[in-house]
User: Fold this.
Amino acid sequence: MFLDVKNKEGGCHCGKVRFKTKEDPYWVGACYCVDCRKISGSPYTVFAAYETGSIEILQGIPTNYSSSEKVFRSFCGECSSPFAYFYKDSPEKLFIPIGIFDDPQGFKLQAHIWTSQKLPWVVIHDDLPQKA
Ligand SMILES: [Zn+2]
Ligand SMILES: [Zn+2]
Assistant:
C-alpha cells in the first residue's frame, strides 16, 4: 500500500533533528484543525502515523510543547520545524508531518480529519473517508 516508505529518513530544516522510520506508517491523513493550522502556518497538514518503536531518532532531541489538554507538539528547538504530535495518554503513537521527510512522494493519503474546521476554500477532490 505504501511504496518505498520503509527506512525513510527525515529531519527538520536546520538538520539538528534527524530520524529514520523502520516500518510503514499505519495511517496517513490530512488534518484541518485549527491547532495544526496555527502550528504549521498552513491551511492543513498531512501526517503519517507510526508506533514510536518504529521511529529511530538519529540525532537531536525534539522539544515538546503542550498544544492542548490532550496533545503534545514536538519540534526542533533550533529552527522550529515540526517533528511530530502525540497524545499525552498514548505517547506510543507519533504523527509525523510528511513534509519533513527527505522524500515524501511515496505516502498515500487515506483520510481527512477535522473537516469541520477546514477553511471553506480548501476543496477535497477525492472520495477518501472524512471525519468532521
Ligand atoms: Zn532544526
Ligand atoms: Zn490537527
The pocket of zinc ion (ligand 2) is lined by residues 31, 33, 35-36, 114 (CB under 6 Å).
